[in-house]
């Protein structure tokens, strides 16, 4: 498995990237929920809450994979 200039293998880097973007999006969705509620669109607010929940679960799953990789020799020097 290749280790790039970051010291992380591609899979670890990809998981970190997905985790970051999921957490960032989850933060942004909070504003979307407020905007929808302010517009009187509870249906849309519920949709954004559902999407937020999915991103939260996605970030958690990435975290679990990263914990698993951190004890592995396949993770590259930055994860050990």
Percent range of helical residues? over 70%
List the total number of helices. 2
Number of domains: 1
Mean pLDDT: 86
How large is the share of residues in beta strands? under 5%
The secondary structure category is: mainly alpha
Largest sheet: none
- Terminal CA distance reads 15 Å
Shape: elongated
Low-confidence stretches: none
- Computed over alpha carbons, the radius of gyration is 17 Å
- SSE string, helices as H and strands as E: HH
Instruction: Kindly report the oligomeric state of this protein.
Output: single chain
Q: How many beta-strand segments?
A: 0
Tell me what the structure shows.
- This protein is mainly alpha-helical and 80 residues long.
- The protein has two helices and no strands.
- The chain has one domain.
- The chain has helices spanning 10-38, 42-70.
- The radius of gyration is 17 Å and the shape is elongated.
- It starts with 9 loop residues before the first helix and ends in a 10-residue tail after the last helix.
- The model has no long low-confidence stretch (mean pLDDT 86).
């Amino acid at each position: 498995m290749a280790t790039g200039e970051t010291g992380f293998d591609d899979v670890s880097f990809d998981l970190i990237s997905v985790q970051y973007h999921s957490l960032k999006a989850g933060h942004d969705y909070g504003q979307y929920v407020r905007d929808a509620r302010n517009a009187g669109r509870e249906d849309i607010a519920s949709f954004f809450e559902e999407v937020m929940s999915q991103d939260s679960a996605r970030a958690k799953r990435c975290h679990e994979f990263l914990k698993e990789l951190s004890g592995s020799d396949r993770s590259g020097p930055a994860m050990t």
